[in-house]
Automatic annotation (TrEMBL), chains A, B:
Organism of this sequence: Denitromonas halophila
GO cellular component terms, semicolon-separated: cytosol
UniProt entry tagged with the keyword Transcription regulation: yes
HTH lysR-type domain sequence ranges: 3-60
The protein, known as: LysR family transcriptional regulator
Claim: Transcription regulation is one of the keywords in the record: yes
PROSITE patterns in the record: HTH_LYSR
Pfam family, one: LysR_substrate
InterPro entries: HTH-type_LysR_regulators, LysR_HTH_N, LysR_subst-bd, WH-like_DNA-bd_sf, WH_DNA-bd_sf
Keyword annotations of the record: DNA-binding, Transcription, Transcription regulation
DNA sequence: AGAATTGATTCTATACTCGCATAAGTGGCG
DNA sequence: CGCCACTTATGCGAGTATAGAATCAATTCT
């Protein structure tokens, strides 16, 4: 049983326009083809749908009954198909992106602006979550893409480097170290250090990097979000070691940002996608755009 | 733009069954064919609908979005098509029949009983109306078939003879003529004749037939329906000349039915259909059945 | 490591659909 | 009554597409 969509479409158009020739012109095929399509459909069904002489074309009783159904079928199919062609050719559609908060307020806005220019109308749903949650969201399909920290090369994840940023020392202008051009790790007094929760991917990474070099750090205070840490520093509670992009340049006048060296430790920001899964064109375009932006900066 | 229903169906079945081979079995084609159908559809759309390895087949984001639409499309089409095949192969369906009242209570019941045996579930809508109305109903498509009197060979109508029946003389047993075995037209006393309205096709036909033979008839009373005339005869108002089938044999004990000769005038009952129009299988089956019944009686 | 499963590919034969040219049917007009 | 204009149907040839058989390739399970 081989169902013939062309035949149904032929039937609908012929019935609507009231003639084979007119319908043929409308469908950009010859009248011959339409005659044959309808004949084939009728033969397949075993019924006559159109009574036609060389003068008139009119619906049979069965044809009149079938026409509305045929119309909705043809309508549904052409609508669905043309929508999909739109999705593919112009990358129309929406997608979901998971992103860690710092990047959501730093790098993401610029990318979204550029994306909006090239793909007006496409919406991006953003899940802003911790590094772990970003990874899981991508892994479980809640988000097609993720921006976050590198994973331990998970088999089902594929990651591409977006940027590297050094950890910096943040303090108030009144702080004794604020005048230095650069700071080494041994300069730090643990007592006043505001740390990030040991549950965070950020902290785990930093601890690991420091441990490799024999450095151990344990602050007095512990918060979960980088932005909270910045707030505490600004309030004079202490100092903090945070990724450079935590604070936009010149966003908080009273705060100093000083490079940390010996060693300089950098964290990587990557864009994540599920391996072996095809991105929607909308997400794919965004992926390309972000990679391009990363490569050119 | 050539839309591929097979491809959409392949997509749906593969997605639902989760594998090409299973889907191939279900559709009674080879796995090769399905691979190709899906490839063709994807190429046409310019996107991937299924991410597949040799181990898993799973929907892409776009595929997941398209699946419900595809399912309704496939469902609608197969449902509509199989219904039509049902209509054609088993003459399923309803139709409308126009019929003059006498035949509706005489010949029609038997035909309907036989039809119901061979085509259970098919409904017949019956328009019982005058001879003229029957003709118009068929002509204007309100009814596919009509049972009534012959028309003046209307170009757009085709008629087939069902039966011929003589006009008979009806009177009460007390009537002076009731003992005769047959009656000739000159026996009639016009004064007590119950006529049919001159608007009726029946009356026009009868008048025409009599006029050809130089007989003119004009009753005192005039009614519109044959059944009313019978009622009046039974009530002793007068006598009437009516088609034989107006009264079933033995239906009214007190009434006599006597042949009218010199000449015997018969009216024809025909089944009408529109010329050059295709009947629905349901109506066609009924048409054949009625003709068969007429031929064998 | 090998067997089993499953989707992809290659090759070939068949079937299909189309378009051209033309026939055939139908209503209108002189 | 027959010719003309218009519309659908058909014969035929060709190019394309589609299906199936056999085989390959990748992956998992034992």
């Amino acid at each position: 049983m081989k169902i013939d969509f062309d035949g149904i479409q032929a039937f609908v158009v012929i019935a609507e326009l009231g003639g084979f020739s007119k319908a043929a012109e409308h469908l950009h095929v010859t009248q011959t083809a339409l005659t044959r399509r309808l004949q084939k459909l009728e033969a397949y069904l075993g019924l006559r749908l159109l009574d036609r002489t060389t003068r008139y074309v009119e619906l049979t009783v069965v044809g009149r009954e079938f026409l509305p159904q045929a119309q909705t079928i043809v309508g549904d199919v052409t609508r669905a198909v043309s929508r999909l062609k739109d999705v593919s050719s112009r990358s129309r559609g929406n997608f979901t992106l998971a992103c860690i908060p710092t990047m959501a307020s730093q790098m993401l806005p610029k990318a979204m602006r550029r994306y909006a220019e090239t793909h007006p109308g496409n919406r991006i749903r953003i899940i802003d979550a911790s590094g772990f949650e970003v990874r899981d969201a991508v892994l479980h399909g809640q988000a097609e893409l993720g921006i976050g920290l590198p994973t331990e090369s998970h088999v089902e994840l594929e990651e591409a480097l977006l940027l590297e940023e050094p950890y910096m020392f943040f303090c108030r202008e009144e702080h004794p170290l604020s005048r230095k051009k650069q700071i080494v790790w041994s300069d730090l007094h643990e007592a006043e250090l505001i740390g990030i929760s040991t549950m965070s991917a950020n902290r785990i990474f930093l601890d690991y990097q420091l441990a490799k070099r024999g450095i151990k750090l344990s602050g007095t205070y512990e918060v979960r979000h980088l932005s909270t840490a910045i707030g505490l520093v600004a309030a004079g509670v202490g100092v903090a070691i945070l990724p450079n992009s935590t604070l936009e340049e010149g966003a908080r006048p009273g705060l100093c940002r000083i490079p940390l060296t010996s060693p300089t430790i950098k964290r990587k920001i990557v864009i994540l996608r599920k391996r072996n899964s095809t991105l929607s064109p909308a997400a794919s375009a965004f992926f390309d755009l972000v990679l391009d932006q990363a490569g050119s900066s």
